[in-house]
Write a sequence for this structure.
């Protein structure tokens, strides 16, 4: 039988609109190898690796009369050239031009009649570099059987070549009768699961949750109504949040890179974690940015949804069975002292670590391939399920491998995550550490966040402000000089 979307996945699909496209992106910049790189080479590599991400050759098929959630079917007309595309910037393309292009690409909703992903080769960057931009719908990635294509596209060594993947033959698509029979069987086996998956019910829920409950009636109607209400309103920012607003169809992207060594110095000096430092830097940046926007009265805190990897009871933490759980963090943007902000953030993250379920950065980086692309997608997915608990923004921070990765013979030199905007949220922040650097991707509503470049600058300034506390920490912890015997204290 065909794999059917779960109730939550069906709701995520219904919530994928022109204003809120539900795809997760990555902007990877490469330094070319001796042979150069072009669209044909990228397409050949992607075709070779598609066997390891089967959903990238599948599309969603709707059940007649929308009697149940859609199912995954092989796309018999799969066209790789539709999904892997080429573009170019006027040489030499500047970082600003690339960011503008990224914003336009990420604003466009994926075509639901095809496999839910796109990839762009962008040539013309300075120093003969090129970028690969990927867009993958949240439904393609679950972290267990299905990972992001970015995880299987990159290799630790250049010229890794093909992976001897088996050939692909699409399975015959089920007929309308097949789908109706499967729906009937599932309804008998599990009536609640079948009805909760109704596309019509979830879609109607977008207009009014009450209507869904009344239409379905009883406990089933209550379940569907609660699910839709949770996904629509549970993750919205508070009404008085400075990061709330009506989100349009266009996006604006900004990026910043900082040395990982600077964060490690702060980690050692203040006896905390890299994640603590990242969140403290972002807190300081948000504080300065809001002040620059004329925010006369800063809130004492902003609540960020910060997904973290936790141990899966059914699998090893270094496997694809690793799970990501939402964790709400209060970012003390109202605190003027950088060191106090770090201490408060560190105290907040410690509550999560004390559960004993947190997975360390080293364990995450042991996952095969370039795992950040998958983990960012999982982070976005769980953030959408933070039910009945409001937060101001989403921040994902994923450690990547600290050694070079390659596509063909080209070396990856930068990797910026691009997270989608949830309902009512005008800003998301993704962070990836890789090969000695930390890459921050900022995605915002184009009209509501016209000064996104200022926030990127504030990230650098907040890091410098926090770095100035290192000497203070060393002085505070410096051992007192032992007074020689017989020496009297001064005064």
């Amino acid at each position: 039988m065909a794999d059917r979307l779960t109730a939550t996945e069906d709701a995520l699909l219904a919530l994928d609109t022109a204003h809120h496209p539900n795809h997760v992106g990555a902007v990877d910049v490469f330094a070319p190898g001796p042979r150069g790189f072009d669209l044909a080479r990228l397409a050949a590599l992607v075709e070779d690796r598609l066997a390891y991400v089967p959903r990238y050759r599948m599309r969603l098929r709707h059940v007649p009369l929308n009697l149940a959630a859609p199912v995954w079917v092989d796309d018999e007309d799969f066209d790789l050239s539709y999904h892997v595309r080429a573009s170019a910037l006027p040489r030499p393309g500047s970082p600003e031009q690339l960011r503008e292009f990224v914003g336009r690409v990420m604003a466009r909703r994926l075509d639901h009649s095809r496999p839910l992903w796109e990839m762009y080769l962008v040539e013309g960057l300075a120093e003969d570099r090129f970028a690969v931009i990927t867009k993958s719908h949240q439904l393609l990635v679950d972290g267990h059987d299905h990972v992001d294509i970015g995880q299987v596209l990159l290799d630790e060594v250049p010229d890794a070549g093909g992976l001897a993947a088996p050939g692909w033959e699409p399975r015959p698509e089920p007929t309308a009768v097949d789908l109706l029979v499967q729906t009937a069987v599932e309804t008998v086996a599990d009536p609640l699961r079948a009805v909760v998956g109704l596309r019509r019910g979830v879609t109607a829920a977008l207009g009014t949750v009450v209507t869904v409950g009344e239409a379905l009636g009883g406990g089933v109607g209550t379940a569907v109504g609660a699910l839709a209400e949770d996904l629509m309103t549970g993750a919205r920012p508070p009404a008085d949040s400075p990061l709330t607003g009506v989100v349009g169809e266009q996006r604006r992207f900004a990026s910043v890179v900082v040395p990982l060594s600077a964060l490690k110095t702060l980690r050692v000096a203040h006896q905390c974690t890299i994640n603590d430092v990242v969140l403290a830097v972002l807190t300081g940046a948000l504080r300065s940015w809001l002040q620059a926007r004329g925010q006369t009265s800063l809130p004492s805190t902003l609540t960020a949804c910060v997904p973290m990897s936790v141990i899966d009871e059914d699998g090893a933490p270094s496997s694809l069975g690793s799970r990501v759980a939402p964790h709400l963090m209060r970012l003390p943007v109202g605190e003027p002292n950088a060191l106090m902000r770090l201490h408060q953030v560190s105290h907040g993250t410690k509550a999560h670590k004390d559960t004993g379920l947190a997975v360390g950065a080293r364990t995450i980086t042991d996952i095969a391939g370039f795992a950040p692309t998958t983990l960012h997608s999982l982070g976005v997915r769980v953030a959408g399920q933070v039910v009945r608990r409001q937060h101001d923004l989403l921040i994902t921070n994923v450690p990547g491998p600290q050694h070079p990765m390659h596509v063909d013979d080209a070396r990856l030199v930068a990797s910026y995550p691009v997270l989608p905007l949830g309902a009512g949220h005008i800003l998301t922040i993704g962070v990836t550490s890789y090969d000695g650097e930390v890459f921050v991707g900022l995605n915002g509503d184009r009209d509501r966040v016209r000064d996104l470049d200022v926030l990127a600058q504030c990230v650098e300034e907040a890091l410098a402000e926090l770095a100035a506390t290192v000497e203070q920490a060393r002085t505070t912890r410096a051992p007192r000089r032992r007074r020689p015997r017989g020496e009297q204290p001064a005064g």
User: Anything to note?
Assistant: The first strand starts at residue 23 and ends at 31.
